[in-house]
Amino acid sequence: MANLIxxxxxxxxxxxxxxxxxxxxxxxLPTTDSTLATQNSLGVRNLIxxxxxxxxxxxxxxxxxxxxxxxxxxxxxxxxxxGAFSAQQDSSAPTGFVNSLKFTTxxxxxxxxxxxxxxxxxxxxxxxxxxxxxxxxSAKTVTISFWVRSSLTGTFGGSLRNNAQDRSYPFTxxxxxxxxxxxxxxxxxGDTSGTWLTNNSVGCRLxxxxxxxxxxxxxxxxxxxxNYSNTTGAVSVIGTLNATxxxxxxxxxxxxxxxxxxxxxxxxxxxRCMRYFQIVPIAGTAHNSSELCVTGTFRVDMRDxxxxxxxxxxxxxxxxxxxxTLFNVGYGNAGVGNAYFAAGxxxxxxxxxxxxxxxxxxxxxxxxxxxxxxxx
Length: 376
Known about the structure:
CATH class of the largest domain: Mainly Beta
Number of helices: 3
Radius of gyration: 24 Å
CATH topology of the largest domain: Jelly Rolls
Low-confidence stretches: 35-40
Shape: globular
Number of domains: 2
CATH superfamily of the largest domain: Galactose-binding domain-like
């Protein structure tokens, strides 16, 4: 087979060497008036983080059931219906994947009113969304792709929305066979209107609707100046008791053609998740009965100054199972409660001095771990 040589206008050339074997090798280029490298970057093209659902720092695979919970990193469940659910990382997955997200309806709500909704959502940071140029005449087209299965069949819905939730694009996809993995793609022309943030706030919300009332459901495949998280007439998963819905391989990329899922190295994806959530080990020596000398940097700079996830305002919750408790290392690991960070000693890069109400012994080593969240 002959080689194909591409020459530049003035100098240089690229040689595409055909394989020295029988048969035909086909390279399919996307339909676009721009370059392949521009439309689908050769690296880090997926704007979704943890799209293969393999990282779950909070739950280690255990189920969550409350509105606002994160069943896996970067993906959040919202539920304002009278129904109830269970959501968790699962081992059921199509070929090429290890994990998925499983949603199960544990209490059905068959009649959703006004703005009642159940949503599975990832909020994309504006810094990562800025190059799309949405809100301008140069807005770029994107393609969403994912693997999905459900015990239900029919037309399901979702949407793309801006931070203010006053611009939305409802979309649909069809599940044809129950309990079978199916691959779906949705192409969306970029929005030339509205305000799409390009900083460390929410640049875009990718939402999969699992049920929605009439006020949050809109016409599919059209931009609207409204807050639509779902499409009119879509299947309501929350409306059927014991219904299941799984998803994995979620990808959002520039261009009008879906490319194979971008499997990034585990350490890279974990670091990207840690920009929004991380559990930080803490150790230090007590200065006196109420002050602990600690200082540390986060494994990854966080998106913003994190909140300290605890039942008490501005106090750290510890991954060893006891909230607001430091452990006296080498002295029976006795717990000292009511630990907290002073105002101003935590920022997006690290933390400093820690205090307790009382109970420390000067000169002794204490340890624990703070749960830090800077989610969008």
